[in-house]
């Protein structure tokens, strides 16, 4: 469209959607030619009024000229003081010593190899270092290591002499300053429950009853003087005691007691018991015999005056004869009657005789 302007040249108003340029709308205008987009970006234009750069990954800006700071977008991408190095749509980590991995997340033990001699080591992963903590008499030196202190200039060796900054202890003492007495009981030398008493360069053992020796290793012989050897067959030494094995007839701890064999009342039927050494004797009452007076005497077989022409019956302390009357003469019958009358005061035997 041509527009007239007073006292000026007319101008052409090109179609808004057209691709023609001033002044006569007869020249095609391309906003992407020349291409203003950088780093391989794609340029797009809309008619002659607008264009846009489509950036590749990793770039930004109107013309895609700015590399995106991937390190800024990943503040914690590199660990343990690793240095972030920006790339295109990526970043890499430059790790400090002893660290590795994409994010410097992997490390070896900073205290490996015992870098702190004579002291303790603590890893400091924040700055990828280690720190030494020294034990007395060592101190942290300028090189970060534990160095021996010159004790000879600072203290005295209590029970020893100083040699090259160290205390050389006399026998019986130990420690960095020879301040401790050696514990002679630490090896538990006392046996059988003995109590160890530490001394200077030595020890002693307080033994339980029944044991003796330097280390309470010997069972004390408790038998001498313990048994009456007259009545002792043999002795058996035990822990803290002696066992006396008595000969027959004696008893007691020391074999001093004679055994009373009559205590069990072995004699029967009223017999009297007499104790003997390892034996006894029974004095039997009338009519009994045997070791224990438990056997009745058979007078019918043991006496010489046996019944003649009659039957013998044994009594407790005697016998009697039952005569066979038919074998007696008149004189024998009369004598028999006279005998019984004189002995027993009656002649009841006449009724029993047949």
From TrEMBL:
Gene3D superfamilies in the record: Laminin
Domain of life: Eukaryota
GO biological process annotation, one example: axon guidance
SS bonds (residue pairs): 55-64, 95-104, 207-216, 284-293
UniProt-listed Pfam families: EGF, hEGF
GO cellular component: cell surface; plasma membrane; receptor complex
Keyword set, alphabetical order: Disulfide bond, EGF-like domain, Glycoprotein, Repeat, Signal
InterPro entries per UniProt: EGF, EGF-like_Ca-bd_dom, EGF-like_CS, EGF-type_Asp/Asn_hydroxyl_site, EGF_Ca-bd_CS, Notch/Slit_guidance
An example Gene Ontology molecular-function term: calcium ion binding
Residues of the EGF-like domain: 28-65, 67-105, 181-217, 258-294
SUPFAM superfamilies in alphabetical order: EGF/Laminin
Protein name: Neurogenic locus notch-like protein 1
Organism ancestry: Eukaryota, Metazoa, Spiralia, Lophotrochozoa, Mollusca
